[in-house]
Amino acid sequence: MRPEVTRTCQSCGMPMNLEGDFGTEADGALSNDYCTHCYQNGAFTAPEITIEEMAKICGAIISQIYTIPPEVAEEFSKEQLSCLRRWAGEEIAICGSCGMPLRRDEDAGTEADGSLSAEYCTYCYRDGQFTEPDLTREQAIAKYAPMMASSLGMPNEKAEEMVRQYLGTLPRWQE
Ligand SMILES: [Zn+2]
Ligand SMILES: [Zn+2]
Question: What is the pTM assigned to this prediction?
Fold first, then answer.
């Protein structure tokens, strides 16, 4: 029952690729929504945890991996967590090209018939096509990494690593 694309744990945001990454339901089936660290036998492993506490834990991890100042990493984690089903109450779709949350109608791209895209944001996708159809994954990394580096106060090469990892979870860039 492995999904075709990488799923993101809807509690902690961890990408789930391998069967062992997924949590389990009470009947032993793999959870489609939560990772093995967050969810086992149909229940959260830490049922009382708050989004602030989760942001502290996730922030500390990314702060260390990507050398982001701890407070900035925590704030960034909280923002990311706030799109996940466990904290938002529903799963908020993210753009399959750049990862931007599609929180409101204005955030969504448009299909050729003018309807809103459920998959891509308005910056990446308009009138049924990508705004930069020839953009490669490497070019996307080169484009987004400096923005991440400056908004999170991290070195550019760490930002590249982070963006590379992140884009690998998005449908447009799956290999
Ligand atoms: Zn998780
Ligand atoms: Zn986008």
Answer: 0.86
